[in-house]
Amino acid sequence: MKAFRIIPILFMVLMLVNCKPIQKTAVGMLTNNQWELESLKGNSTLAELFPSGLPFLNFEEAGKLSGFGGCNNFSGIYSLEGKDLKLDPGAVTQRACLAEGENQFLEAIQQVKSFKGDSEKITLSGEAGELMSFVPKNQ
User: Fold this and answer.
1) CA angle centred on 56, ends 50 and 58, rounded to 5°
2) Integer Cα distance of 26 and 35 in angstroms
3) CATH 2.40.50.140 holds for 2-136
4) CA of residue 123 relative to chain centroid, distance
5) DSSP of the chain, one letter per residue?
6) Cα distance between residue 49 and residue 39, in whole Å
7) Which positions ≥6 away from 110 have C-beta within 8 Å?
8) Res 99: pLDDT
9) Residue ranges of the domains in the chain?
10) How many CB atoms lie within 10 A of CB 24?
11) Whole-angstrom Cα distance, residue 87 to residue 74?
């Protein structure tokens, strides 16, 4: 009779153990690169929007997010559950910016609901579809 009680517990433990590598793989993929903006809301001509340099994201292991918005630096948090991703840019430096790109970028970051990708490219999407895509900065 005790064996029948142990089997469901072992099954649950195996399920939980098997889920962790998937999560670690997604986190590892995000954290092993500095991600540079490739497109924003379908626009891949970004030089006019970001004359001071292209925005980038740094995902850190402990759920910390940092990056550059095209004019200002930011430091915030992210949460990742499977492919569900939420980004909060948090504190943003306050330099005066002439271009409109940074505001569009920071607004898009806050709309992110999910991601897909691999080590070559990630795509961040919201409820209405693709918001932006990134490639590793050193490529």
Assistant:
1) 160
2) 14
3) no
4) 9
5) -HHHHHHHHHHHHHHHHHHHHHHHHHHHHHHTSEEEEEEETTB---TTT-TT---EEEE-TTSEEEEE-SSSEEEEEEEEETTEEEEEEEEE------SSHHHHHHHHHHH--EEEE-SS-EEEEETTEEEEEEEETT-
6) 11
7) 87, 88, 89
8) 82
9) 2-136
10) 11
11) 12
Q: Which residue has the tokens 């142990």?
A: 6
pLDDT at 12 over 70: no
Quote the pTM value: 0.78
Q: If pLDDT is split at 50, 70 and 90, which confidence band does 14 have?
A: very low
Residue 22: is its pLDDT beyond 50? no
Q: What is the pLDDT of residues 75-103, one digit of tens each?
A: 999 999 988 999 999 999 999 888 889 99
Report how far residue 98's alpha carbon sits from residue 107's, in angstroms, rounded to the nearest whole number.
Answer: 17
Contacts of 9 (CB under 8 A, 6+ apart): none
Q: Which two tokens stand for residue 56?
A: 């980038």
Q: What angle do CA 96, 45, 134 make, to 5 degrees?
A: 85
